[in-house]
Amino acid sequence: MSRDLVRPIPAPAPKQPRSEAVAVVAFGANLGDREGTIRAAAERIGRLPLVGEVKLSHLFETVALTLDGPDPDAPGYVNAVALVRTRLAPSILLGMLHAIEDEHGRVREQRWGDRTLDLDLIAYGEEVSDDPRLLLPHPRAAERLFVLEPWLDVDPDAVLTGHGPVQELADRLRTEDEG
């Protein structure tokens, strides 16, 4: 074989690192050590690769929400929201959130059923996705006070892409609940 025919394969160009974004992650738990689980999950998120700061809201106690509406007889939830600075792609972050749920014994038997831990990716910067595996922003975030109130606790100036200021969304829901 002639040396002229052997050419090295050029190395691929290095990828530019993904710019940092702020992801909004909602936490919920109504089984077991709810507060301990949420705090442990937030710490675990902070140890993920390409994750910087994790800023967790205060914890909020809420009534369980089922497919039929609020259920005061079901175990109550503890909810929180964290702002997560990350360079992980949103789909990778979501997969890691699911793995953290699994680490905490999450069982997916019934939609909106009781759970040891629920982690939802609410927003990822201003990214919008209609991919059924990664809906961004979360399609029901604007309708959930148990997401909006903790979000406001950690970011009073928050804006939900496509919906507007989180404060206005929360005020609207509170007014509807009163009426």
Q: Per the principal axes of the C-alpha atoms, what is the gross shape? A: globular
- What is the average of the pLDDT values? 90
Give the amount of beta strand, in percent. 25-35%
Helical run tally:
4
How would you describe what is shown here?
The chain has 179 residues and is α+β, with helices and mostly antiparallel strands. Helix content is 28%, strand content 28%. The protein is built from four helices and eleven strands. The strands form four sheets. Strands 1, 2, 3, 6 and 7 form a five-stranded antiparallel β-sheet that branches. Helix 3 (145-154) crosses helix 4. It starts with 20 loop residues before the first strand and ends with a helix.
Describe the structure in brief.
The chain is 28% helix and 28% strand. It is α+β, with helices and mostly antiparallel strands and 179 residues long. The relative contact order is 0.18.
Q: What's the SSE blueprint?
A:
Blueprint (H helix, E strand, L loop, with lengths): L20 E9 L4 H13 L4 E6 L3 E3 L1 E3 L2 E3 L5 E10 L3 H14 L14 E7 L4 E3 L2 E3 L8 H10 L4 E2 L3 E2 H13 L1
